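Technical annex, item 7. During the second reporting period the consortium partners agreed on a shared format for inverse folding records so that results from different sites could be compared directly. Each record opens with the tokenized structure and is followed by the designed sequence. A conforming record, contributed by the partner at site C, is shown below for reference.
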């Protein structure tokens, strides 16, 4: 009798352990519904340039993302498939080259929750100055990434960023680059790279380009990278990631060493998804306003 009870208990425990795995496998085995594939084609312009293998891989990752992560609509936003699939697909773009074709890849393993607002949202800010004074202010934000497993996004800006003419800004790529950065334990502009040789090369190249961007920002000169990247090394990595996926031809022409580092890290070349811009005479850096709303 005792043996029987142990057997039943063991089977129940095994079932409880296998059940979630079975549910994930069953969800991933279903093809993405045609209506959701249409959302990828509409709101993720890179999808149009992908080969069949890349499209299938992205679709599987989107399914896994939707299955694993919880979305919450804030300030009255209705969470439609369009909202969830667009955010999932843009976030998974960053992982497309970093996971293999087989097995279940880890998709932002520490991320649980995506909060979506209809538009820019207000966030209270506390700032501590050198004399110890804390100032509180409220800022309009388009996106925010937290180390405790949360990302917050403005749907209005997500939707607009999915199109090829969106000027190189993409709030989803930006915030999920912060998520990748934080996986190394520190959000400091260096994601997990593996060998010390890779860290050395990364640090050398990114430090130089970061210093150059600070110089450009100080003098109001506008190159490929947004001046917000001059805020600190973590913002530099996030801003450069946006450019890598949104304006790869321009970034590789202006920052070839940086582009090489990102090719090694993301293990994919986004130039294959876009036609190169027509050759033209190299323009000098232009003067422009500092774009400073990303967080
Ligand atoms: Zn940021």
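Designed sequence (site C submission):
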């Amino acid at each position: 009798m005792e043996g029987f009870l142990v057997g039943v208990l063991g089977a129940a425990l095994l079932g409880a352990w296998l059940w979630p795995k079975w549910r994930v496998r069953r969800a991933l085995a279903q093809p993405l519904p045609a209506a959701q594939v249409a959302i990828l084609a509409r709101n993720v312009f890179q999808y149009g340039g992908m080969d069949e293998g890349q499209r299938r891989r992205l679709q599987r990752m989107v399914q896994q993302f939707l299955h694993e992560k919880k979305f919450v609509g804030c300030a009255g936003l209705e969470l439609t498939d369009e909202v969830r699939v667009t955010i999932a697909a843009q976030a998974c773009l960053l992982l497309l080259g970093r996971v293999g074709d087989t097995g279940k890849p880890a998709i932002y393993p520490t991320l649980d929750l995506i909060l979506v607002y209809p538009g820019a949202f207000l966030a209270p800010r506390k700032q501590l100055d050198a004399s110890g004074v804390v100032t509180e202010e409220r800022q309009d934000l388009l996106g925010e990434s937290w180390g405790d497993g949360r990302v917050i996004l403005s749907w209005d800006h997500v939707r607009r960023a999915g199109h090829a003419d969106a000027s190189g800004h993409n709030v989803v790529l930006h915030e999920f680059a912060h998520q990748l950065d934080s996986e190394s334990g520190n959000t400091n502009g260096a994601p997990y790279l593996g060998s010390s040789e890779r860290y050395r090369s990364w640090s050398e190249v990114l430090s130089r380009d970061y210093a150059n961007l600070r110089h450009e920002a100080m003098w109001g000169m506008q190159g490929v990278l947004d001046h917000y990247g001059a805020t600190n090394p973590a913002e530099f990595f996030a801003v450069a990631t946006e450019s890598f996926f949104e304006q790869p031809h321009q970034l590789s022409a202006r920052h070839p060493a940086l582009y090489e580092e990102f090719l090694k890290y993301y293990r994919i070349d986004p130039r294959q998804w876009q036609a190169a811009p027509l050759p033209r005479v190299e323009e000098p850096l232009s003067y422009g306003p500092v774009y400073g709303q990303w967080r």
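The mean pLDDT is 85. Residues 174, 178, 235, 238, 294-295 surround zinc ion (CB under 6 Å). All partners now use this format for quarterly exchanges.
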